[in-house]
Amino acid sequence: MREHSFILKGNICYSETKNHLSVTEQGYLVCCEGISRGVYPVIPDEYRNLPVKDYGDRLIIPGMTDLHIHAPQYPFRGIGMDLELLEWLNTHTFPEESRYSDLEYAEKAYRIFVEDLKKSGSTRAVIFGTIHLPATEFLMKQLDASGLSTYVGKVNMDQNCTDALRETDALESLESTAAWLRETSGKYSNARPILTPRFAPTCSEPLLEGLGKLQKEYGLPVQSHLSENLSEIQWVQELFPWSACYGNVYEHYGLFGKEAKTVMAHCVHSSDLEVELMKNNGVYVAHCPQSNTNLSSGIAPIRRYLDAGIPVGLGTDIAGGTNMSMFRCMADAVGVSKLYWRLIDQEKKPLTMEEAFYLATRGGGSFFGKVGSFENGYELDALVLDDSGIRTAKELNTKERLERYIYLAEEGGRLAGKYVNGREILLS
Amino acid sequence: MREHSFILKGNICYSETKNHLSVTEQGYLVCCEGISRGVYPVIPDEYRNLPVKDYGDRLIIPGMTDLHIHAPQYPFRGIGMDLELLEWLNTHTFPEESRYSDLEYAEKAYRIFVEDLKKSGSTRAVIFGTIHLPATEFLMKQLDASGLSTYVGKVNMDQNCTDALRETDALESLESTAAWLRETSGKYSNARPILTPRFAPTCSEPLLEGLGKLQKEYGLPVQSHLSENLSEIQWVQELFPWSACYGNVYEHYGLFGKEAKTVMAHCVHSSDLEVELMKNNGVYVAHCPQSNTNLSSGIAPIRRYLDAGIPVGLGTDIAGGTNMSMFRCMADAVGVSKLYWRLIDQEKKPLTMEEAFYLATRGGGSFFGKVGSFENGYELDALVLDDSGIRTAKELNTKERLERYIYLAEEGGRLAGKYVNGREILLS
C-alpha cells in the first residue's frame, strides 16, 4: 500500500492527554501504510523518501468521531424543535423514519446524508439506521464507498411505537437482524454492523434476550440510548420493574459493555448506581450537548464521567441535534458544561477547549481502536483546516487559531483536506 | 426617492405578534420611498407600476437588529473562552481594546468588522466602540458608508480598569465625549451616536452625573451593561453602597430609560426591584445567550421579562459571544430558554421559534422606531434567504424552511439579498 505512505506538512495539533495539546508549527506528520508514525519538526532520515504534501500555513488535526448520529433523521433536522423527547419521537421522528420502507425515498435521503457527512469534519461515525433492511444496506453501501469509517445499525424495535415502524414481534426483529448480519458482516471494509436496540422502551424482553445471543454469536459492538429524559427513565422503570436502573435493563441481557463494546447516547440523568455500572463495564458515553438542549433534556454531567474514568466521546445526534458539525459539537460541549457549573454544581469545573478537543478526537476515536491521535501507531485520520476566511486584525498563535476554528468553523472555516486511514477523501 | 420604491416577490414571513408568524407564499412586499406598504398575495392596483424584483422560491424576512455588539472585540472572538466576566475583561478585553489608540490598527480591525457585519443578517446594530475618538469616528464613517443603520458609542470609563484604557478623570471623559458628539451628531445619516458608560464599575459618580447632563443636552439614547455576573453585581454594591440595585446606579443619574431610550445588555441576575425598575422605565433588555453561556454568567429569565412587558431584543455581544450571526443568536435564545425551564423554573415556558424570531426582528428593531416588520408604515429592512444549499429529501412548508434556516444558516444557508431602509446593500 505504498500509495498510503506520505508526509503531511503544516501546523499540527493533537491531544497528548485530555489536558495537553501537542502543537508543532510547520511540522511533518508521517503516514506509513495508513498508520501514523508520529509528528516531527524535521523529517527523520528513515522517511526521507516519502512524498511530502505541504499544506503551508494551514492547521492539521486528527479526524473526529461522531459517536451518535441518526442517518434517517437528517431530512428533518432543524424542524419541530419545540417538543420534549417522547412527544418529539411520536410527532416527528417515527413518522419520518417510517418513510424508509420506501427504498426510493431512502436512497434519495441517504445519498444527501452521506455526501454531507463526507464533507464534514467527521472521519468516523457510529450511526443509527432504521428497522428497514434494504434501506440500511443501501446506507452501508454508500458509507463504505465514501471512504469514511463507520459502524451502522439496523434498528430493533418491537413495541411502544407507531405501527408503521414496529417490527411484528421479537422473532421477526431477530430474524431480520440475523439476515442483515449475514448479508453485511465482512462485506464492507469501511462500514461495519453494530447491534442497535433503539432504546429499552421499544424493545420487548424476548427481543433484548435474542439480541444478547446475536451479540455473542457475531461478537458485535452495541449502541443505544440511556437516561436522556426524566419521563423516559420513569417509563423504563414501569416497563422493567425488576431493573435496578435503566442501564441494568441492557446489562441484564449482555448489552452493556461487559460482553460487548458498548456506546450509550446521552446519560443526562444517570443514577449513582448506573454511573457505577457504566464505569465497571467500560460503557462509552456519547455526549450530545446540542440535542440535550434542543429536546429540553438537561445537561449531562461530563466532568463526573471524566473523573470516574468512564470513556466519553461526542455525538451530534442528528436530528435531536441540528448541526452535523463536530466543531459546533465541541463548542456546545464546552458551553453547556459552563452552565452546568453555574446552575447545578460548582464543584464540577467546566470543560476546557483542550478537553472538548480530546473528546472529539481521541475520546470518541478510541471506540474504533487506535484512532484520534497522531502518535506512533494510530490509524491516520486527519483534517486540514483553512481558517483564512475567518478574518482578524490580530496576530494569533496556532493554539488560538485552533480554538477560534472550533467556535467559528461555520463562519468562514473551510476543510482543505480530509484523510481516513491514510486515504485522502475527495471533498468536492 | 423613486429608486427606493419597488416590490419584492417571494415567500414572505414576518412576526404579526410575538406568537404569530405571518406567512405569504409567493407574495408581494411593497416598498414606497423606503417604507413598507404591506404584503399582498396579488399586487394592489395602486402599486401596479412599481418595478418587481422576483426572488422566486426564496424566503423574504425583515432585517434583524443586533442590540448589543462590541466592534473592537471582533479580532479576538472565539479565543480565551475559559474565563468568567471580570477576569476575561482584564485578561483579554481591556488589553485588546487598548490597541485602538493606534488608529492604524483600529482602521484595519474596523474595516473587517464592518465588512463582515454588512454581509451578516443584521440590518441594524447598537454598537460599543472604545474610549478612543479617532478610532470611534472611523468606525462610524465606515458603518455609515456600509448602508447599515446603527447606533455607535464612544465608551466612557474613568476607573477600575487597566491604565491604558482609563480616561484620566471624569472631566476628560466628558470633554472627550462632548467633542465626539459635536463632531458626529447629525454628520452621518446611518450611524448615530449613543451614550455609552461601559458599566457602572468603570464609571465614577462625577462621570455618571456628567453623562446624565450630556444625555439631556443632546437627547441621546443610552447603552450599557447590567447584572451580567454575580461578582460584578456584588462589586457594584460595594462601589455604590447607597444603591438599591445595580440598575438604580444608572437610574440615579438619569441614564435608565425614563429620560433616555436605554438598552441594557444581559440582565441575567436582576433582582425583583431591578426588574420592576426596568419595567416602569421601559428599559430594553439586550439578551445575549451565547455570551452568557461563554462567560459562565448563567441564563437570563427572558420569559419573565416578556411576561412583564419589558422590551427585549437579541444581541450577539461579540466577543463574549463568538458568532456574529443573528440566526445563531435566535437558536441560542431558544436553546438556553429550554435549559432555564429544565434546570431553574418549570413555570417559565421555553421560547418558541416564533418568539425568538420576533425578538430578533420586531423586538430589537423597535429600539430604532418602526423597524423589524413588513406591516404598513415600517421602515423597510429585508433579508432574502437562499436555503437551497441546506439539502433535504423531505418536502417542507415555508414556516419549516424558516425554522430550519434559523438553525442551519451557517451550514448551507446563503443571504441572497439585503435591504436597509429600502436601499439594497451589495453583499459581494
For the record, the CATH class of the largest domain in chain A is: Alpha Beta
Biggest sheet strand order of chain A reads: 3-2-1-4-15-16-17
The total of beta strands of chain A comes to 17
Biggest interface between protein chains, with counts per chain?
A-B, 55 and 55 residues
Instruction: Give the amount of beta strand of chain A, in percent.
Output: 15-25%
Cα separation of the termini of chain A: 24 Å
Name given to the CATH homologous superfamily of the largest domain in chain A: Metal-dependent hydrolases
Output the number of helix runs of chain A: 13
Low-confidence stretches of chain A: none
**Which topology of the largest domain in chain A does CATH recognise?**
TIM Barrel
Order of helices and strands of chain A: EEEEEHHEHEEHEEHEHHEHEHHEHHEHEE
Describe the overall structure.
The structure is a homodimer of 428-residue chains. The first copy, chain A, is an alpha/beta fold and 428 residues long. The first copy, chain A, folds into two domains: 2-62 and 372-424, Urease, subunit C, domain 1; 64-368, TIM Barrel, CATH 3.20.20. Helices cover 36% and strands 22% of the residues of chain A. Chain A has 13 helices and 17 strands. Chain A has helices at 85-98, 103-119, 133-146, 170-184, 205-218, 230-239, 246-252, 272-281, 289-294, 302-307, 326-343, 353-365, 398-408; strands spanning 6-15, 21-32, 35-40, 52-62, 64-70, 122-128, 149-153, 155-156, 191-193, 196-197, 222-226, 262-266, 284-287, 312-314, 382-386, 414-420, 423-424. In chain A, the strands form four sheets. A seven-stranded mixed beta sheet of chain A has the order 3-2-1-4-15-16-17. In chain A, strands 5-6-7-9 form a four-stranded parallel beta sheet. Chain A has a four-stranded parallel beta sheet with strand order 11-12-13-14. In chain A, strand 6, helix 3 (133-146) and strand 7 form a beta-alpha-beta unit. In chain A, helix 2 (103-119) packs parallel to helix 3 (133-146), helix 4 runs parallel beside helix 5 and helix 11 (326-343) packs across helix 13. The mean pLDDT of chain A is 97.
